[in-house]
Each structure stands twice: as structure tokens, then as C-alpha cells.
Amino acid sequence: MLKECFDNVRKLVPLVHNITNYVTVNDVANIILACGASPIMSDEPDDVTDITSICSSLNINIGTLHKSSIEAMYLAGKRANELGHPILLDPVGAGASALRTNTAVGLMEQLQLTVIRGNISEIKTLANGNGTTKGVDADVADKVTDDTLDEAILFVKKFAAQSKAIIAVTGAIDLVSDGTRCYVIRNGRPEMGQITGTGCQLSGLMTAFVAANPSNQLDAAAAAVCAMGLAGEIGYSHMKDGDGNSTYRNRIIDAIYNMDGESLEKGAKYEVR
Amino acid sequence: MLKECFDNVRKLVPLVHNITNYVTVNDVANIILACGASPIMSDEPDDVTDITSICSSLNINIGTLHKSSIEAMYLAGKRANELGHPILLDPVGAGASALRTNTAVGLMEQLQLTVIRGNISEIKTLANGNGTTKGVDADVADKVTDDTLDEAILFVKKFAAQSKAIIAVTGAIDLVSDGTRCYVIRNGRPEMGQITGTGCQLSGLMTAFVAANPSNQLDAAAAAVCAMGLAGEIGYSHMKDGDGNSTYRNRIIDAIYNMDGESLEKGAKYEVR
Amino acid sequence: MLKECFDNVRKLVPLVHNITNYVTVNDVANIILACGASPIMSDEPDDVTDITSICSSLNINIGTLHKSSIEAMYLAGKRANELGHPILLDPVGAGASALRTNTAVGLMEQLQLTVIRGNISEIKTLANGNGTTKGVDADVADKVTDDTLDEAILFVKKFAAQSKAIIAVTGAIDLVSDGTRCYVIRNGRPEMGQITGTGCQLSGLMTAFVAANPSNQLDAAAAAVCAMGLAGEIGYSHMKDGDGNSTYRNRIIDAIYNMDGESLEKGAKYEVR
């Protein structure tokens, strides 16, 4: 199943419209190219409706918001919804500032999102809502570990059901659920957290995977998580004396470039709960 | 001739003002440094007139337009024209949105451009104009191949003559013409298309080459195309097991860093038609 | 002393708010992670007060100014001052345009800065002021060399005393002074100047070092300069045939990633005057 999800990306070459932060945008573009898809970036309100219209998916990342890019997110999102394109929201820093929280919650309320991907803290913030929204019970631990796994799965399933989106919580253990099934994924390495933007890269990758697998979106989202984690493992295995986080960044993107459905299937470590 | 064009860049160290997209801007800066020139980035209307004034050339790239950066492009362009600085336009995505097409066409109409560099689709869009402009016949194939070469050369020559700019169409075969002569260049590798921004990088490089060779602008533009393609070949020859598009990106810039006029002359594959 | 300064960064993991340019922002984020600190980027006026409030330090870099980011610099700076957070100003291109000079001088006048780090030309511009400011005597040579060292030290000490900030002038020889003592640092390699953003990276690193060493800010700032220069030396020693400035960029960040207080202490080349 994961194999087919990746193969479809390389076969269909989905065009991903990214409204993303300027910190990690280059790596996001390169990892989307590495997986066989094609990126285009545009965050100007006067440009995004046209750009979204020629794409097949939309990746919204709130890592460095500007007034105009927020406007662009709503415009592009509405157009993507009209066209039935999948939309991924990466709520970077939700909970860290009112603007980020309110923007993420507002996008959730006004758009039909296909996937929301973040760390546990960001996802909890969205589940709690911003006062005008009644949130689900987000009384879940701040780290997904084997000890807290059961309650975390329950939380992610509940929030997926309520939000009608696939929820992907990434960390040491990753959870991806559509409200019914929940992938529990154990690929990756802790050193990935010492590179800026591995989360943003995963969001770009996941958007491409979901776009190329319209009838298997949960599996596609989980396949992207496995692919990113596996790339982290493969990239790490190529590290040499003197290498550090900057070289590791390149090696992870390189590993996606050299990965295919078969090697993904073989390296993926997951169970479905 | 190509040798001299590159040597002049290293000798004269032209300062290139770049108004470019935030996706590939870092690689553009590093490749400009790699060839021996010096980059400065500024896209704020209140800043660009001063910055252009201390530079010797202007590289305009419309990859991620904002209302304010469009204003900056016109302001910087007018100042560059007053000062006689060469201006390169990279019409990224012209044809993909009204804003991109109109901005590129507007810049063509209001500025005296020295070079326009894009892929065949972008250049055809500009040749067709945007309704208010009467374009040249752009009934040319969508790929420049040996089969379509003759008509493509004719098209590029015509559009160069009409626009009074050097036209550089890059792809599997690259064409660079001033309306009279046309360089047909066969350096490069298809894998360069799997890196974000090799086109943007070439535009930065080309601006530096043209700035350093005011009396040989066509040859300088062609030299930059050969240098970029040759760097793609050299970079690829250094690729090792496990390397992918992210490492390849670094190796291409590295190859420019290590290239000089002599090695360019030796590795360039072109004919003049 | 330098050892302790670096060890404190890895121990305390300061969160650095960066309002910086879009050219080198990714490398700034990665080098802050490499040294053991944590970066967050935000330049939207509606976001920065919240973001600064959860951080422990602020890095302001004027490399690509926008009207809104200038507003954000003042807002974040005022909040950082209220909270007693250290602020570093990197006046990129001060002297090259009125907007850059006026912004840097305005920030100096309205904020209590902890460190100002730039090249000799930028620092001289700030010392001269912008007309409304009475500057110190900036009749210092344009390069800090052994021949001009005495007058340069005097200038840096004077400007530090007048501005009540630590002044760091970086170049072939680096000077860091609080007005009383002056570190004279001889780490680094000339090839670092052929990479975009080594100065911006140093500013990010230095902000983290100063944040983690509130009672030793001068030593911390000097430690960051030594660390960056030493990383340049270590990175260069790993360069192989065919490597150039793009790979060198990665190797420098990697070297910070692998450095610790002990190796810094051992490799640092400085005297205090």
C-alpha cells in the first residue's frame, strides 16, 4: 500500500502550490522535486488564485506569517476547496503567538482541510480552539511515548473525527489518523530535530503524496511520514566524520531522491491501530 | 571569447543587484560569489534606487512577486536604465498567472532590457504579449529539440530583434540570440531540472557575465549558459552513491567556484548560427 | 572562559528571535541549532511582540528591509528591552543606502542594544551617525590589519563606550570590545567571504552566546567570533577536490555542530587589549 502511494507520486507528478515560510522554503521545494512531484511557490493575494488553479494541491505553512500571506492563504484555500484539491495545513508555532493560533484556527474554520500536520503542542492548541471554537479534550501528554501512546491515539482519532481532517502528529513516535484508523510510525532519528525545517519538508512531501492518491489519503499521508523518517535513517547512515546538521539536511533530501515505493515499503516501521 | 568573458567577471568583480524570489535567493547569491562577482539583494521600493545606484547591473526575477517588489522592479529598472546598467529579466512562471504575465510584459514595455532569460514556454508567453502588445509569431514547438531547432532559432532571433534584448531560451538545447547571431548550446544535464532554481542561478550568473563584458553582451550571455551547463556536467561527475538533488545543487555551485575562463572554453559545447 | 560560554549555550538552549533577511535565513537557523540553541523567525508586526516574549534574545539583521519588517524591529526591540533580553543589531549594508543607514541609526537611538556586529565600513557608518546624531571620530582605516590595529582598537573602544553596546568588527582581524577591554581575534579564513551570509550566521550565533551568558556578555560575544572563525578553519580542512563555496557553507555549520567548549578553547586565537 505504501509502495503504491509513493509510486503514484513519481507517476503522476502532482504540482503542489506552497504558501510557506521563507526560512525553509528552498528545502521544501527540493524535497518536493526529490519525491518526483513539482513545487510552485506564491503567497501574493493577487497571484494565488491563478496559481492554485493550475496545481493539484495546496500546502499552507504558517511559519512566517505576513498580513498579505494570510490573505493569500484564505484566497488560495477557497479556490482549492472549489476545485476539490487537497489542502494541508502546517500550523507552525500555533500556541506561540496569538496571530499564529488565530490564523491556524481561522483556516480550520473557513476551509475544508484534508490534512493537518504538526507537533503535539501545535495540534493540541488547534484542538483546544481559540475561545470561539469548542475544542476536543486536549488533555494529552506533551510527548508521544510508549507510556502515553494509548491516550495520544485516542486524542488524535477524536480530533480527526471532529475536524474531518487527517491529523498527523509527528515526534519520536508519529501518529496519523482519519478518525477511524491510526498509523503508529517509528521511523526517523532524533538528530532530525537539529535541522531547521524537517517538519516543513514533511508537510510539502505529504501534500504531494496526498495529491497523488486521492482515494487513499490516509495511507498516502502515513507513507509520507514513513518516507521522511526512513530518509532520516538513510541520510544518517551516510554521515561521515565531521558531518553535522547542515550536511545531514542535504542527505535527507538526497535519500528521498533515491527512494522508491519498494524501498519505502521495506524500510517503513508502523502498525495500524 | 568565452574565456575572456569569464576572466572579466573574476577581474572586474561586478556588483549585481538582485530583486529575486525568496525560494532560491541563497543559491543565487552563492553562485554569483562563486563566479567571482558580488551580489546584493533588495526589493523594498524605498531601498532599491540607492542600491541599484551603487551596483553595475540588475537581475529581476519574478518567481515570487509581491505588490511591493513589483513596484521595486520598476523603480530599480528605471534607475538602472538611467545609469546604463544592464538589466536581465527572468520571467519565472509567465503564462501561469495573470500577475506574472502582466508584470513581465509591463517590465518589457517600460524598461530597456538587456537580456530576457526563460524556458521556451515563458519566452513564448512574452512573445505573444498580453493583449495590449502585438507579439511576434510564437507558433514554435514547446521543446527545443533537433527536430524543432530551425524554427526555434528563427523564433528566438525574431523575438530578440523585436524586443531589442538578447533572448536566452534554456532547456535541453539552449539558444541565445541578439537577433543576428544565435548560440546553440548543448552543455548541461537533465538532472539539473530536479533541483529548484538552476534557472534562477543561471540568471544571476548571466547578469554578472553581461555586466563584466559591456561590449560583448551576447557572447557573455552565451558564456554564462555554457558555464552553468558545464558546471552541471562537472557537478554530476562528482556525484557518489546516495547523493541526490540536494547535494547536486551544492556541487554545481562548487563547480562554478572552481571554473575559470580556460576550463570554460575547453568544456563549452556550442555552435553559432 | 570561552569554554564556559559555549558550554552554557548547549546547557541553557536559549531561544533566539530572529528578524533577519530572506537571503541567509536558513543558514542562520541551522547554525543556531548547530550551537545548541533554538531559533524562531518572525518579522510581522502583529506577531513579533508575542514571539519576542517567549524568547530570551533578539537578533535584528537589516539585510533585506521591508516597511513592515522595520516596524517589527522597533516593536520587538522595545519588548525585548522591557524584558531585559539582549539585542544584537547586524547593520548589513549600512552606508549603502539611506534606508539601511537610517534604520540602523534609528534602532541604535531608540533601543538599548547589547551588541552591534558588522564589518568596519558598516560600523564606521553607525559611528558617524546620520546627521541628527553626533558620531564619534570614525577616521579609521577601511581594513583592520596589523598596521592599523592600534587605531582600530581605539576606535572600537570609543564607539563601544559611546554607544553603550559591545561592538564587534569582523574582518581579517576581528575586534570585540565593551569600551574597556578589546578582544583581538585571528581565527577564520579569507574564503569565508566567498560564502553568502557568514556574517549573518555569526550574528545569530553571537546572539545565542550572549543570551546564554548574561553576566559575561563580552566574553560570550568574543567566544562566538572565535567559534565562527575556528569553524571556518575546521570546515576548510575538510574540503576535498572539487569542493567550493556551497559545500564550504555546509562544512562550517557542521563544524559548529561538532564543536564544544573544550575544542573552542583549544582552537581560539586571541589576545585581550
From TrEMBL, chains A, B, C:
Organism per entry: Anthropogastromicrobium aceti
What name is this protein filed under? Hydroxyethylthiazole kinase
**InterPro entries under this entry?**
Hyethyz_kinase, Ribokinase-like
Q: In which pathway does it act?
A: Cofactor biosynthesis; thiamine diphosphate biosynthesis; 4-methyl-5-(2-phosphoethyl)-thiazole from 5-(2-hydroxyethyl)-4-methylthiazole: step 1/1
Family classification: Belongs to the Thz kinase family.
Q: Kindly state a single biological-process term from the GO annotations of this entry.
A: thiamine biosynthetic process
Residues the record lists as binding ATP: 117, 170
Q: Name one GO molecular function term.
A: hydroxyethylthiazole kinase activity
Does the keyword Kinase feature in the UniProt annotation?
A: yes
The record's section on Pfam families has: HK (PF02110)
Q: What is its EC number?
A: 2.7.1.50
Q: What keywords are assigned to this protein?
A: ATP-binding, Kinase, Magnesium, Metal-binding, Nucleotide-binding, Thiamine biosynthesis, Transferase
Q: Does the keyword Cytoplasm apply?
A: no
Function, in words: Catalyzes the phosphorylation of the hydroxyl group of 4-methyl-5-beta-hydroxyethylthiazole (THZ).
Group of enzyme by EC: transferase
Annotated positions binding substrate: 41, 197
Source taxon at top rank: Bacteria
Catalyzed reactions per annotation: 5-(2-hydroxyethyl)-4-methylthiazole + ATP = 4-methyl-5-(2-phosphooxyethyl)-thiazole + ADP + H(+)
Membrane spanning residue stretches = none
Gene3D superfamilies linked to this entry: 3.40.1190.20
The organism's lineage is:
Bacteria, Bacillati, Bacillota, Clostridia, Lachnospirales
According to its UniProt record, which cofactors does this protein need? Mg(2+)
